[in-house]
Structure formats: C-alpha cells, structure tokens
C-alpha cells in the first residue's frame, strides 16, 4: 500500500481507462505519503480536466512545476487548462490567457525535443511515467505516448493561434501536429476549421 511508484503507474493506467475518479484517489494517496511528489500533482493536473475541474487542474500543474520544474507534462496540462479558460473568457483577459497557454505549450515542447539529445530521449522512454492525450482510450507504447503528447502540444498551439486570428501560423502548427498523429480526426477537423475561419476573414479561396 505504500509503494508510491506503483500507485503512480496505476493512476496513469486508470486515466487511460477514463476511470478519472479512481485515478485521482490514487494520486491523492501518493500525496498523503509524499506531499512533495511532483509527478502525483502532474497526474492530478491531467485528471481534473477530465472531471471538468479546470481551476483545480491549473493549481495542480503549477504546484507540480513549483516542486520540480523538470516535470515536462505539467506544462502541457497547464497549457491545456489555460487554453480552455481562454475559450470561456470573452473579456480582456482572453489574449493574456492565450499567451500564457502558448508559453507553456512551448516549454513542454522544448523540454521534450530530443532530436539533438538522443541520450535524454532514451531516458524519457525508460523512466517517464506513461500518459495519453485527453482523447485516447487505449494505452499505447512509450514511443506512441511521446508522439501523441508532442502532437497534442502542437494541436494546442494551433488552436491558440486560430483563436488569435493568426491563421497561417495555426495551419503550420496543425500540420506539425499531424506529423505526430497522422490519423487523429480532431486535428484534421481543427485544420479544416482554421481554413474555414481564414476564408471567412479574408475571402481568399486558396484557404479552402
């Protein structure tokens, strides 16, 4: 019952199975034994949006980063939460929230850009706790997890730029997301909406 690593792995598996409540319970059990466990907070930051508790997700992500600034996934879940918050904000804070989301997406993407650091890529595959993106219902391999999360980061940037009317940049980010998740219907749909929005603003037929 006190094996923290096993509880963390179980929480990740439960998130894959969409058993959010039990996953949250497992992560909270870890924090009762180890209140400074950054990965447990990152799990909670992943779990709470699935339970539609976005404010708590942001709080957990920030606490994870505060405890260990190298917990890469925490930046991704914080960015996802900020992007959702921006979609609900029709006031003046929307632009600032989108900017904060972009910043955290890029922090995650830079921290997981291992093209020039192959030894770090090996360590990531061997020792990072598996996660899936918010839409996945199957537990993929570590390589697939890495690709899904990189794709999710660029997908989030695509939406941020679309919501800022930066359509050309949005297209580029959606296309980069598709390099990681070629068959992801959400990204293909989002790319289509970017082209449609650009046409509605510019009336440029090349957008469709």
Question: What is this structure, in a nutshell?
Answer:
The chain is mainly α and 208 residues long. It has helices at residues 4-16, 20-33, 38-50, 54-67, 72-88, 93-111, 118-127, 142-163, 167-180, 185-202.
Strand content: under 5%
The number of distinct β-strands equals 0
Spans of at least 5 consecutive residues whose pLDDT stays below 50 are: 118-140
The value of Rg in angstroms is 17 Å
What is the terminal-to-terminal distance?
A: 56 Å
Descriptive overview:
The protein has ten helices and no strands. It has 208 residues and is mostly helical. Residues 118-140 have low confidence and may be disordered.
List the helices and strands and how they pair.
Elements (H helix, E strand, L loop, with lengths): L3 H13 L3 H14 L4 H13 L3 H14 L4 H17 L4 H19 L6 H10 L14 H22 L3 H14 L4 H18 L6
Helix pairs in contact: 1-2, 1-3, 2-3, 3-4, 3-5, 4-5, 5-6, 5-8, 6-8, 8-9, 8-10, 9-10
